[in-house]
């Protein structure tokens, strides 16, 4: 999906790690793209798409669900179910700070 990282780009990279909670079944009205990620799955269980929360340009639950369904290859109008999950996001500066604290102990 993305081009390979070149060696000269390594010093410019910033890292983050998202730890996902266990997904829980949800109704559309319970989705909030700023707070929860979403998993959509067709009735057969063969097609599943996931979208993380708080992504730039994703403002509504409808946008979030549509993107996740498209990623899953679920055709428009096909019935599917939702699950939602929360994310604990660790960014590089926080990770480095945590490591520095641990190294001082």
Record keyword descriptors for this entry.
Dna Ligase, domain 1; 105 residues; alpha+beta; 6 strands; four-stranded antiparallel beta sheet; single chain; two-stranded antiparallel sheet
Describe the structure.
- The protein is α+β, with helices and mostly antiparallel strands.
- It has a domain at 21-89: Dna Ligase, domain 1, CATH 3.30.1490.150.
- It has helices spanning 61-72, 92-104; strands spanning 16-20, 24-26, 37-42, 48-51, 80-85, 87-91.
- The protein has a 4-stranded antiparallel β-sheet with strand order 2-5-3-4. The protein has a two-stranded antiparallel sheet with strand order 1-6.
- The radius of gyration is 17 Å and the shape is globular.
Q: Would you kindly provide a brief summary of this structure?
A:
With 105 residues, the chain is of the alpha+beta class. It is built from two helices and six strands. It has helices at residues 61-72, 92-104, and strands at residues 16-20, 24-26, 37-42, 48-51, 80-85, 87-91.
Q: Tell me the distance between the termini.
A: 41 Å
Helix content: 10-25%
Which parts are unreliable, with pLDDT below 50 for 5 consecutive residues or more?
A: none
Give the SSE order as H and E letters. Answer: EEEEHEEH
Task: Summarize the topology.
Elements: E1 16-20, E2 24-26, E3 37-42, E4 48-51, H1 61-72, E5 80-85, E6 87-91, H2 92-104
Antiparallel strand pairs: 1-6, 2-5, 3-4, 3-5
């Amino acid at each position: 999906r993305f081009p390979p990282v070149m060696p000269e780009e390594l010093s410019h990279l910033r890292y983050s790690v998202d730890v996902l909670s266990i997904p829980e079944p949800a109704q559309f009205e319970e989705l909030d793209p700023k707070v929860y990620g979403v998993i959509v799955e067709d009735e057969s269980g063969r097609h599943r798409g996931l979208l993380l929360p708080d992504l730039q340009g994703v403002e509504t639950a409808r946008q979030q669900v549509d993107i996740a369904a498209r990623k899953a290859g679920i055709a428009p109008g096909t019935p599917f179910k939702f699950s939602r999950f929360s994310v604990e996001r660790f960014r590089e500066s926080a990770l480095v700070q945590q490591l520095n604290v641990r190294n001082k102990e």
